[in-house]
Amino acid sequence: MSEKHWSKVQLLHEVVTNPNILVKGTRSYYSDCWDDGFEASVVRYLHGDEISRQWEPKWPIDQLRIGDCVCIAAEVVILMGGNHTHRGDWFCLYPFMDFIEEAYVGKGDTVIQDGVWLGMRSMIMPGVTIGEGAIVAANSVVTKDVAPYSVVAGSPAKRVKYRFEPAVIDALLALKIYDWPAKKFDALKRYLCADDIEALKQASDAYDQSKTID
Fold first, then answer.
1. 3-state class (DSSP) for residue 151
2. Cβ contact 79:73 at 8 Å
3. I need a labelling partner for 60 at 20 to 30 A (CA). Which of 2, 93, 99, 189 fits?
4. 86 is catalytic
5. How far is CA 165 from CA 191, 194, 214, in A?
6. Distance CA 214, CA 212 (A)
């Protein structure tokens, strides 16, 4: 086995085995240099790992949904809902097994949409959705949904800014870039690695028209 180095990453679709982690596409990655990898170190308390997949679940299992082109930096933590048996509205927080099923409060699926960048040591709390193209700054704690193409930072994470003007964000979302066929995505990569929305829209239209003619 080759020695780990920061220049190497894990491609999620190659390493994920938990059936409750759903990965779209083949480009999403985790920088695993400083720990034991994505499933073992990043995803916490999710039923379906090597040991818990043998258990009979007592409640509906939340899922982790990860889009394509998601960049997950080193030592990120994605906290899932499997251990949420500490009831803040009860006098005693302790998870007594007598009432464990009553104590569980589901948070729902956690969704990390296409093109997201999770900064080093950020923590994603259960049940949130991080919108397409969003950036989560290093050491941030995300406790609520993050808008597409926004930048959030802090604990709890708050919006710092949007990456682009509203009209540009609307255009990007309308283009559905991450649902393009692989050939189109690769053909227009030069326009994706730039900031000219009109050029991108024109290139997309031209590509689609060429395929119609074909």
1. strand
2. no
3. 93
4. yes
5. 18, 15, 35
6. 5
Crossing angle of helices 166-175 and 197-213, rounded to 10°: 20
Q: Which residue has the tokens 């053909």?
A: 187
Tokens of 7: 């220049």
Regarding pTM above 0.90, the answer is yes
**Each residue's pLDDT tens digit, 4-17:** 999 999 999 999 99
Distances (CA, A) of 73 to 8, 9, 54, 99, 174: 12, 9, 30, 38, 28
Q: Which two tokens stand for residue 70?
A: 């998601």
Nearest CA to 22 out of 1, 5, 2, 43 is that of 43
Question: What single string gives the DSSP state of each residue in 77-143?
Answer: EEE-STT----TTSS--S--GGGHHHH------EEE-TT-EE-TT-EE-TT-EE-TT-EE-TT-EE-
